[in-house]
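User: what does the whole thing look like in 3D?
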Amino acid sequence: MPVENAEVARLFREVADLLELQGANPYRIRAYQGAARTVEELPQPVEELVKQQSLAELPGIGEDLAGKIQEIVNTGTLRALGELERKVPKGLATLMHVRGLGPKRARALFDSLGVHTLPQLDRACRAGKVRRLPGFGVKTEANLLHELEVHGAEEHRVLRPVAAQYGEALLRYLRSVEGVGRAEIAGSYRRCRDTVGDLDILVTCGRGTPVIRRFVSYPEVEEVLAEGPTRSSVRLRCGLQVDLRVLAEASYGAGLYYFTGSKAHNIAVRRIAQKKGLRINEYGVWRGRRRIAGRTEEQVLGSVGLPWIPPELRENRGEIEAARQGTLPSLVERADIRGDLQSHTTDSDGRDTLAAMAHAAEELGYEYLAITDHTPAVRVAGGLDRAGFRRQMKRIEQLNSRLSKLTLLKGAEVDIRPDGSLDLDDATLDALDVVLVSVHSAFDLAEREQTRRVLRALRHPSVDLLAHPTGRLIGRRGGLRVDLEQVYRTAVEHGVLLEVNGQPDRLDLDDVAAHAALACGATLAISTDAHATAELGFMRWGVEQARRGWTTKDRVANTRPLERLLALLHAGRR
DNA sequence: GCCGTTTTCGGCCCGACTGTTTTCAGTCG
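Assistant: Here's the predicted 3D structure for the full assembly of 574 residues, as structure tokens:
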């Protein structure tokens, strides 16, 4: 049984939690947390690095952690973790993640009251025992009880468009407050992550502007978590936490940079600053007590000798090195996109008609839209058979003769059967302009079979594009067990495009995978998989995810004009 | 536990808010 990277990360995070509860060296704890993240974001299975003996080349992984990773891969467990678990009661780590508790207080609860589970904590609070502990009080006890009722210890992240809805509305509200200058959302939202845990909003305003008061009295606010002169946190009724920070104009760039993160990126850049005798905080870049930068992000990064780095890249995944060397990619933009290569109509499971989809695409200024309805095997989608596709092709031709700016491409999203064969006959495939293939069943095949299945489909001469390559659904289903590197290489070899699917719960390939695919030489297609006219707007999410994967315009097929796109598809079929 | 253009030892990013305290620890981001 192969050990997933996520499993290694999980075990390391457990070690970090337990070390924290023991009051261990904070930097040792951070080393485990950092290693967890590094392993989690590796584009290839960590097992491969174990075989190549190249683990210690990873940043933040030295001899010791490399050995522990090797142990996990070989045995599935980690002895050091077992030893820690004997010293710290299980469950205390869960307790530690309740808002308001940290390692110290969780530990105190256990040492004095024997509390090590959430129900025990609940009972102890209700019995008024917690308030008597040193460092606790009546208010802390009440807050804990409240936290347990509302949220427990689980972190919940929302999909990016959901965060966008609430965040953009709140921004409009804040901008309407008199005296407020700039207002922007920073944090992982600005970095365009696929999910958002909380929103960080920054504003500038004149002295005496009651922006914090107005913020906490926003109608959607359910609960005020903190309220100070420059900072406040609230929880909205939808459950989303929002932090507001008030900045002076002179430090706006520094604040924006600081609160955009990521944490790992910030730490790495501050380390560079430190070597230059500088200090970076949210108010600026400082040499001693003198502020040498802060008004703009360009100034802040410039002060440590770096060019501005797009927020999407700030994950400490090589962007700082690239910035130093002047090799940052020029990322693809929404405006570069000339058409959409996956869409559905009422002929299968779409909610809008062929004509409606065409007009909506024209409205967006597209040159082309591929109509790619499902094939029969996807029963829930009411897929078309060969006769159905023939009829649709005729209607597309008729529509094309009436459309002036847009060309509809005759396509299909062909189901890849479990044996790797395609769910549509070769003659029909040949007649189509663009053939997408994708997996909609048998998600649980073992890696060998799943890989064989997908590779067989990619080798079919008519296939142009692999749609939602991993099949993941954010928060609901992990990706297929498939050897992605082989998929990328085979796609390159056979001229098959790899999709970055813009559906907010797919975003598949994701950022890390897209980056890995590009490294293998792949060409991507960013498409929306729209099942209604409004979903053509999902292009925004797809482009963002591609940008997070370091994608440039020339590596995206649908930034090409129609003629060049068709040439590319045609070349791939040989 | 990691790491090296000050270092193989001694550093490791930084500040705000809360609630408990009478000057600060703990938590959070």
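In plain terms: The longest strand of chain A covers residues 407-415. The first helix of chain A runs from residue 5 to 21.
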